Amino acid sequence: MKNTIALLALSLLSLNSMAGIDGVYGDDNRQDLYQSKSSLHKKLARSTAAMIHGGHFTKSDKENVFKIQLGKTLEVGQNICPSERFSQQVAVAGCSGFLVSPNTLVTAGHCFAMGGNPQAECDNKVWVFDYGIDSAGKDPTKNIPITNIYLCKQVVKVAYNAFQDYAIIKLDRPVFGREPLRFRKTGKVSSGSDLVTIGHPSGLPTKITNAGKVTDNSASDRFSTNLDTFHGNSGSAVFHSQSGLVEGILIQGKPDYVLSNKLNSNSCKVVNTCDNNAANCKTDYSDPQNPTKKGEVVYRITNIVKDIETAIKL
Question: Which residues contact 313 (CB under 8 A, 6 or more apart)?
Answer without folding.
Answer: none
